[in-house]
Every structure is written in C-alpha cells, then in structure tokens.
Amino acid sequence: MTTRRRLAVDERIRMRSENWPEAVTPISQLMVRIYRVAGLIHAQSMALAATRGLSLAEFEVLVTLRSVPPPYELAPTDLYGAVLMSSGGLTKVLHGLEKSGLIARIEGKSDRRSKPVRLTAKGRALAERAMADVLQSARKSIMRGLSETDIERLTQLLRKLLAVLEGGEP
Hints:
three-stranded antiparallel β-sheet, mainly alpha, Arc Repressor Mutant, subunit A, single chain
C-alpha cells in the first residue's frame, strides 16, 4: 500500500503558479500558509488532548471554563458563544464531561430552568495539565521556525488583521 504524502505549501503554490498563475497572488499565498499553520496546530492540539483522554471540543470547553473567574462557571448560552461548535454539539460534549466528573451542572439562581456549567476540581486539574501540554508542544514547534521577536511581530500583525475581520478597529 502506498502512502500519499501531503504536498508542502510551497510545492502547492508552485504547482498552482504553473497551472493557474492568476490564482497565485500575495493574498492567496498568505491564505494558504495561514490555513496550513492552523491545520497543523489544530492536529497537534487534537493529538495532545487525546493523550489526556479528551476530544478537542472537550478540551476547548474545559479551557474556556478555566479562563473565567472562580468558581469557573458559565451559563450554557455564554459558553456556547465562547466555543466554536453547534449548540447540539455542545450539549453532547457537556453530557460527556458531566458523566466524567469534569463539570457539574448546577441549578441557576435566578432561573431554575438554566443550569450553569461549572468546572469541577478534577476538570480544572485536567484542563491545566492539558493546556500545559499544548503550550509546551506549540512553543517547541513554533520556536524551531521563529524567534521571540518574530513571534511578537506576527502576533501584532494577526491582532491587527483580526480586529478588522472581526469588525473592530486595529
């Protein structure tokens, strides 16, 4: 059985340039590289979350809850607004995390129908360990190609671009 290797970005751009030159612009080259970096980081994060027994969606929920002030709790609608998944997907993830004892659904104070999602001590510990894994791995990978100064500059440029794309001001 032959394994197909993924074409490197520069090779893909070269092929496109030869066969569809009008599609090779500075913007298209930037977009392809952003997509590839995002894909590689996403795959690396998924693999690291899996070593801790988490899907990337579960990791995202735990990290989101860990990112708010104690008691690390959000209303389901606020949590949905903070993570990148459908409401049905979020509900499924929450059920699994609750079953594993990583979150608790508590009765709402003002609205008994709303059950805020709270990170448990077990969930907090797992979120912190998994995040440390992801950050250590990302730092190691990124530092192989960029200096601290490069990282600061790239971060500034992406912040500026995202401010415009997300509807804010740079």
